[in-house]
Structures are given as C-alpha cells and as structure tokens.
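Problem statement: downstream parser choked on a complex file, so we are re-checking the raw output for the S-adenosylmethionine run. The parser issue turned out to be on our end (a line-ending mismatch), but while we're here, posting the original submission so the record is complete.
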Amino acid sequence: MTEPPSDFDIELRLLLEAIYLKYCYDFRSYSVASLRRRVEQALEKFGCRTLSQLQDRVLHEPSVMPALLQYLTVPVSEMFRDPEYFLGLRREVIPRLLTYPSIRVWVAGCSTGEEVYSIAILLQEEGLLSRTTIYATDINPEALRAAEAGVYPIDRVAGFSESYRKSGGRGSLSDYYTAGYGAVVFDRALRARAAFSDHSLATDGVFAEVQLVSCRNVLIYFDRDLQDRAVGLFRDALVRRGFLGLGNRESLRFSKHADAFTELLPEVRIYQRCS
Ligand SMILES: C[S@@+](CC[C@H](N)C(=O)[O-])C[C@H]1O[C@@H](n2cnc3c(N)ncnc32)[C@H](O)[C@@H]1O
C-alpha cells in the first residue's frame, strides 16, 4: 500500500500549481528533495507557518513572487567553477570549433553570468570570440540583469583568478576587468558577444542551432522527465558533432537521449552529439 502524501507534499503541489497558473513559472517537475529544502528556507524568510500561507501571499502580494524566485531557482555561480571542465573545453572542444566560420554557444541556466564570462574569456584567448555569439539564458530576470551588467564583488575575484589559472588561463584575469568601489566590471568586449534572454528549459523550445551547449548545475534540480526534456532540447539545438557540457554531478547515463551522444571527456562531463 502506498503512503498517503503528507500535508507538506499536498501544499507544495498546490503552491507550484498556483505559481504556474499565475506566473507561468513551471517548477512542477523539479526534484522534490531540493524544492523541499528551498521552500523551507522561504517559509522562514517570509515568516509563514505553512505553504498555504505562502501561497496566499504569492497570489495576492505582487512583491512576493520575485523574492520567492530567488529561493526556487538557486541563482549561484562562480567563474571557472570546476577548472578541469574549462581546461577540457580549452584543449578538446575549442580546437574542434576552429573550422566553423561562425560559432554559436548556448549557456543554458546562466544565472548571474560567471559561466558566460568564463567561456567568453576562453574563446577570446583561443582567437574565436570575434566570430562567436553566446546565447545566455535563464528564467530568473534578476540573475539575467546581473549577468548582463557583469559586475561582481571584489572579494570574489581571488577565487575566480585561482580557478582561471587552473583552467589553463593564458594571462591574468585582471586583463579582463576594471576594479573600483569594491567591485569589478568585466570588459564590454566580452559582453558584446553575448545575448542574454529569458528561456525556460521546462516550457520553451529550441531557438537556435549551436555548436556548443554548456548547461551546468541546472539538471540536478529537475526530476528525470524534465532532465530528459532539457537534454532533448540540447540534442535538437546541437549541430551534428556538436558538444554538450554538464555539471560535475550531472551525466547522460540515465537519459533517454544518451544514444544521441558519445562521451568525449566523461571525467568532466563533456559529450559530443553523434546522431
Ligand atoms: C545553480 S545555478 C547554475 C549557474 C551556472 N550554470 C553554473 O554552473 O555556475 C542554476 C540556474 O538554473 C536556472 N534555472 C532553473 N530552472 C530553469 C529552467 N527551467 N530553465 C532555465 N534555467 C533554469 C536558475 O535560475 C539558476 O540561475
């Protein structure tokens, strides 16, 4: 006999349905374990005793949904996060992109932009940035605004620089930003090659043909069906022999689209589309 759902689970489903119906953000196929943690934090922040109370506020107070989105979407990122991944891109993927007259890269779930600037710097150092367009997408408008601004607190930069060095960086990270007033701003030339826009892997379709998709630390928040949907979008967006990079806790092993890819650098989760 299956256990009846708990009150929390019932209220969570109702909350996600309400958010979808009112705001079109579709969290209904996210992994319950990670949603549970995040809504518990949100309950505390909003001073609500139950999810039903939070649902009432989400529906009736316009300022609540944008704030709740910061909990539900986990907008955290770092530059050159897992430097071996970027070293893999630099050594094995970028040289294979050299033959294309124009290059399109999709950074899906780009959050506040650190991954976008990391890839832009790699492409710049390998001489490809001037013929590349980077589509940087996310569902969190506040994160997208931060990504487009390219401004980060200066106290994060030492960590970014260390990872840049480990990723095979050819110069110094300071070549790419200007510092002032406790922050750094990344060069306009890096940003100029990027188009930042709203796109949901849960509800939207493919919008461009690309040679590289980098989607790191996003699929971990999805249930199996939504992971399959997202990987299906990546497969459809990629040219034949195009590349897909995932986060270090993600893999294609259980994906229904696994056969469409070969493992190029499995230790850093870089795949190549084969069919
Ligand atoms: C943990 S961050 C990952 C940031 C970056 N990719 C990295 O690895 O550093 C996860 C991002 O996925 C975004 N996200 C969540 N659901 C999404 C969806 N359905 N479609 C696109 N992005 C989504 C969130 O808004 C958040 O910015």
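For whoever reads this later: DSSP finds ten helices and ten strands in the chain.
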